[in-house]
Design goal:
Structural class: mainly beta
Helix content: under 10%
Low-confidence stretches: 1-21, 182-189
Radius of gyration: 26 Å
Strand order of the largest sheet: 9-11-18-15-14
Number of strands: 18
Largest sheet: 5 strands, antiparallel
Length: about 260
C-alpha cells in the first residue's frame, strides 16, 4: 500500500502521490495565485468527505499539490468560472489560462498549446484560381460550392450554411461539386487553390502540401484536386442544368502544434 505524506500548509495526511491524468499542473498554480495564495480543492482519502477546500501558498501548490492526483484550483467568487464552493467539480478553466487534465476548459474553449483557447470550427471551403471563381456561400447570383463527405452526404445543403466541423487533430476528407461556370475547371497552367473559412479566421491560397496555423492547430492540405466532370448540380441547387460541373476532392490534416 502507498504511504502517506503531510500537507505542508494544513498538516493533514494525504495519500502518497501516484500517477494520474488528473494531476494539477504547476502552471495553474502560478497563473491562479492571488497575493501569493492559491485556493484548491484537495483530494482526501475519505469516502464521506472526498475533498477539502484549502488555501495554500503558490510554492506549496507547485511543490506538493501539483504532484497530488485529484487536486484542482477553485474559487469562492461566484463570478469566477472556477466557482465551486463545495468542491463538487463544477468549475472550468477560462480563456487564456493554462489547461491540464484536472479541470475542463469552459464551454466554447479547447485546450491547445497548453492554454484554453476558442474552439475553431471549419465553416466553409472555397476554391480559388479558377476564372470567375466559386463562392462557397451567398445568394444564387453566386455559384455555390457544394461540400460532401466521402459517402457523398451533402454537408452544406443551404446557401450560406457552414460545415461546423471542429478543428481537432485528425484527417478530414471532402468531395466538392460546383457548376461548370468557366472553361478552366481547375486544370491547365493555374493549379486550384483553397480557402478555409473558420470561426477563428480565414486561411487563404492553400495548395496541396501547404499548411497554416488556425486557432493553435496546424491545418495542412494533404490532397487537393479539381477538374471538369459531369453535370450534377446547378449554381445554387442540387440537380443538373445542362452545363458540366467542376468536381474535386480535398483532404485536410489537423495536428496540434
Amino acid at each position: 500500500m502507498p504511504g502517506a505524506t503531510s500537507d505542508p500548509e494544513t498538516g493533514t495526511s494525504s495519500p502518497e502521490m501516484g500517477t494520474s491524468t488528473a494531476a494539477l499542473s504547476t502552471d495553474q498554480c502560478s497563473f491562479f495565485a492571488v497575493n501569493g495564495k492559491v485556493d484548491l480543492c484537495h483530494k482526501t482519502c475519505s469516502s464521506k468527505h472526498p475533498y477539502s477546500r484549502i488555501r495554500v501558498s503558490e510554492n506549496a501548490c507547485r511543490n506538493a499539490h501539483a504532484k497530488h492526483p485529484g487536486d484542482y484550483v477553485t474559487s469562492t467568487d461566484p463570478n469566477s468560472s472556477l466557482f465551486d464552493p463545495k468542491c463538487k467539480g463544477g468549475g472550468c478553466v477560462p480563456q487564456g489560462a493554462p489547461c491540464d487534465a484536472s479541470l475542463p476548459c469552459c464551454d466554447g474553449l479547447t485546450c491547445a498549446s497548453g492554454a484554453c483557447t476558442p474552439a475553431c470550427t471549419l465553416t466553409d471551403l472555397e476554391l480559388l484560381a479558377l476564372p470567375n471563381g466559386w463562392k462557397a456561400t451567398g445568394t444564387c447570383g453566386q455559384f455555390k460550392l457544394f461540400v460532401y463527405d466521402t459517402s457523398n452526404n451533402l454537408l452544406n445543403p443551404g446557401v450560406g450554411t457552414g460545415l461546423s466541423i471542429p478543428l481537432v487533430p485528425g484527417a478530414y476528407a471532402f468531395n466538392l461539386q460546383g457548376d461548370g461556370f468557366d472553361n478552366n475547371g481547375g486544370s491547365g497552367e493555374v493549379p486550384p487553390t483553397l480557402t478555409l473559412f473558420t470561426s477563428c479566421g480565414n486561411a487563404v491560397d492553400l495548395v496541396q502540401g501547404s499548411s497554416v496555423s488556425i486557432g493553435g492547430f496546424a491545418v495542412t492540405v494533404t490532397s487537393f484536386s479539381a477538374a471538369r466532370d459531369g453535370d450534377t448540380v446547378s449554381p445554387c441547387a442540387e440537380g443538373p442544368n445542362g452545363a458540366d460541373d467542376i468536381a474535386g476532392s480535398v483532404v485536410l490534416t489537423v495536428t496540434a502544434p
